[in-house]
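One-letter codes give the sequence; the fold follows as tokens. Both lines appear below.
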Amino acid sequence: VSVLADGVRTQLLVEDEGPGFPGLDASAGLLLGARFTGAGNDGWGIGLHTVYQLVTGAGGTLALGNRPEGGGIVQVSWWTADGGR
């Protein structure tokens, strides 16, 4: 977990060594009910969608990815009231 802030943007980055997001499809990955399968712990597609709604509702962005060496990446970014956006 890391946090970067430069006075204009704050970024929270979470990287892990788990299964990542198998079958990640950027167009469907955060839709309610979208499920990542094949990781041995299939979810219901509610948790990430809820986080997405909270983050974007507050004016931020949420991005998901897979680490080349395995594991997942979740990046949350938001801007200061007067900066960059």
User: Anything to note?
Assistant: Strands lie at 2-5, 9-15, 61-66, 72-79. The longest strand covers residues 72-79. Residues 8 and 83 are 5 Å apart (CA to CA). The chain has a mean pLDDT of 79.
